Amino acid sequence: MRKLKVAIIGPGQIAEKVHAAYYATRNDVELVAAVHHNNIDKAREFAKRNGIPRYYTNADEMYEIEKPDIVSVCTPNKLHYGNVMQALKAGCHVLCEKPPALTSEEAKEMLEYSRSKNLILAYNFHNRFADDVGMIKEQVQQGALGEIYAVKVKALRRSGVPGWGSFTNKDLQGGGPLIDLGSHMLDAAFYVMGFPKVKKVTAKMFRKIGNKKSEGTLGKWDPSKYEVEDSFFGFIELEEGGLIQVESSFALNIKETSIMNVEFLGDEAGASLFPAQIYTDRKGELTYLLNRGTADPNRHQKSIKAFVDRCLGKPVMIADAEQGYKIQELIGALYESAEKGDSVLL
Ligand SMILES: NC(=O)c1ccc[n+]([C@@H]2O[C@H](COP(=O)([O-])OP(=O)(O)OC[C@H]3O[C@@H](n4cnc5c(N)ncnc54)[C@H](O)[C@@H]3O)[C@@H](O)[C@H]2O)c1
């Protein structure tokens, strides 16, 4: 059988640790090229380290010569849209890093174009691929929690401004912890709940620490170039009456180093995702109905596996372009609300 040819655009840390590392484990795919539009050295070094035979600064040339089947887009957020559209126009299936883009208009165009060409466009919202999430989704569908009327989405770091990349640059990333971390946990929450319709969002964001401190658990950053929010708080009202509360931070004076989780509050039981737990109260005593112990550490690999399998025609779940668009639309509305200081209707 012919191997699927893969090109990687944006040769940074996620491209190397996750995309290239996973593709290299499969004998039905073949890494053929790495692209960095304006840094040949980065492309070359990345290709060398990962056993990729060729590297390019000109993506047109790469598409012309390599004719890849699959493209992984791992650039800073602002460049997702252009690179995804170019890959789709070249007839490739695309796995794009999260968030899908900078705006919902871009994400919509990416969705519509991929659909019109019958190409697969998936986003690496890897958390939903954890076994924990699958277990909770199944229990939710079976009614184990009763009516879920409130959800708490937490993507919090006490002092975790990324010390690499462009995560403090508003122009390149579109925002801070909400678009970077919150998008992950919002996807997991919406996936479990079957993407309920949103009615209204109300949010507030702050920049209080990232522009003063310069070092944390994920390295050093330049506080004078810290342009994004460092904490974000929002309420998402659902059309059917439920409420989702979202909290996300790169820097916030909480006790924990990091909290990445979603809690579902139902009238029969509550659940949290990482690790999968379902619990209820019996006469004042906390009682676990399910307790997985430790969270699935292999969600990244499972996300990319699902994308490749889908490209090979298997009917597996992926974080598809339509769901990516919905998350992008929600993030856009949350930022709009925080900027305007008023609620936004969807
Ligand atoms: N799924 C996840 O858990 C996860 C984790 C981290 C990052 N990400 C996402 O992955 C993307 C990259 O993040 P990262 O942590 O790897 O950052 P990074 O800075 O390590 O990697 C980005 C790479 O893109 C390169 N780049 C910049 N301009 C380019 C261009 N014009 N053409 C090609 N390459 C270009 C940069 O030089 C860098 O090598 C972001 O969208 C981020 O949100 C996802």
UniProtKB/TrEMBL annotation:
Pfam family, one: GFO_IDH_MocA
Matches recorded under SUPFAM superfamilies: Glyceraldehyde-3-phosphate dehydrogenase-like, C-terminal domain (SSF55347), NAD(P)-binding Rossmann-fold domains (SSF51735)
Single annotated GO MF: nucleotide binding
Protein name: Gfo/Idh/MocA family oxidoreductase
Organism (species): Neobacillus notoginsengisoli
Cited InterPro entries: Gfo/Idh/MocA-like_OxRdtase_C, Gfo/Idh/MocA-like_OxRdtase_N, Gfo/Idh/MocA_Oxidoreductase, NAD(P)-bd_dom_sf
Domain Gfo/Idh/MocA-like oxidoreductase N-terminal per the UniProt entry, residue ranges: 4-125
Gfo/Idh/MocA-like oxidoreductase C-terminal domain boundaries: 137-344
Taxonomic superkingdom: Bacteria
Family in the record: Belongs to the Gfo/Idh/MocA family.
